[in-house]
Fold these 2 entries.
Entry 1:
Amino acid sequence: MSGHVPAAARARAVLPIVCAVALLLGLAAFWQADRARHTDRVGNHALVDANATTEVQNAVSSALLRVLTYDYTDPATTQTAAEQVLAGDARQEYDVLFKSLQQKAPGQKLTLSAQVQVAAVKDLTSRAATLLVFLDQASQRATDKQSTVSAAQLSVKAAKIGGTWVITDLKPL
């Protein structure tokens, strides 16, 4: 019987290998299941976290009201608001518009007021948000008693910096 190993001997030799492979597969499956349980499967918190959604809606709405409300007799209030609630591209674009407004507003005795109608959160993570905002802005010129109301739709990006939501990008739609 040269080179012939009985079936029982082969089974005893293979059994530890099969057990080791089964154990490794079982551990890998357990590890994957545990990881899946602890992974945030929904990256968009706007869908599942009502408190965080409300927080960013309120912060962005308040910020927009502060920077889109303007009184020619007190431009510093709006400028201070911009320093506190705008960053990045939104701040740069706002500075250009604000400079133009400051030049024209005193001569027209212009006041602006804004009112957010709806702020819908499209995407939300712990540090960034994208919103669609519908707002009305009223303007009044004391020089000719002319007043107008206009509606606007904005795509707004916000970032949580130092625990505070600030607007980083504003795009009219």
Note: The first helix runs from residue 7 to 38.
Entry 2:
Amino acid sequence: MKIRDRIWLWGQDVMSHHQVGPRKENIWNLPGINRMDPAEGARFLGIRNICRVVMNGSPEPPFDGEMEKLAGCDRVIWSVLGDSGSDRPGDVLDDLEELLALARRYPNLKGGILDDFFRPLSAQWATDQMARLPLERVRTIKARLHSAGPLELWIVIYESALSEYYRSYLAECDAVTFWTWHGEHLDDLAGNLSRVFELSPGKKHLAGCYAYDYGNCRPLTPGQMKKQCSVYADYLKRDLLQGVIICSNCIADIGLKEIDYLRDWIAEIGDETVIPADKEALPESKNVSA
């Protein structure tokens, strides 16, 4: 298998990173204007797989029009649960039924992802309220997906979600995608990935690759870009990671030099071959308490 086959794009609505929340604010201080939709962003970056994720509640079901745009993609993962601003009204907060309907019509749809599944650690939330859906609902989602296709269930976690609390939720998913929200935490990337592997043994593991430091509302430094891409290239080649997800079409055309770096990086390593993993060679993880 080639590394290119394991690279994904995080795809969301045009301008959804510039216009966040009900007031459509540029909370991350992004420059420029975004015009590339997910399919265009994937072509621009040389990516054939897309995670198509609802943000700010958009798009709303039915999703066929958006899925049609991704007909040329090899594989698509659609959000069962969108970003933290995308809870659906009523008793059912997720988009499982719509995803299952899509899968019957589009064979390149391979699963669903739970985005922003865990609320940030704070005094506002009791421990049992940190997850946006009950564990039993996650089990139901997994069972329904597995019986249709079968389809995979993926989940998003961040560097703040590495305690034992998260283990039971990760156990219900087929793939764990790990994201580093604050640029300075990339210094701990290898150790944090090892902790993710410990919390979710036997799962498929992917890493999110940001081209912007959303946690600090500023561009990533050249050193930070080089750091994450170097680790990811090494882990992809050794099959320690089964994928990397580039974020995203929403900033692919706004003038960030980090996007040019990623485009060149994908072109450089894309045709290299994945070799068997040597998990004994992993760095030690951080000691994170429950």
Note: The mean pLDDT is 93.
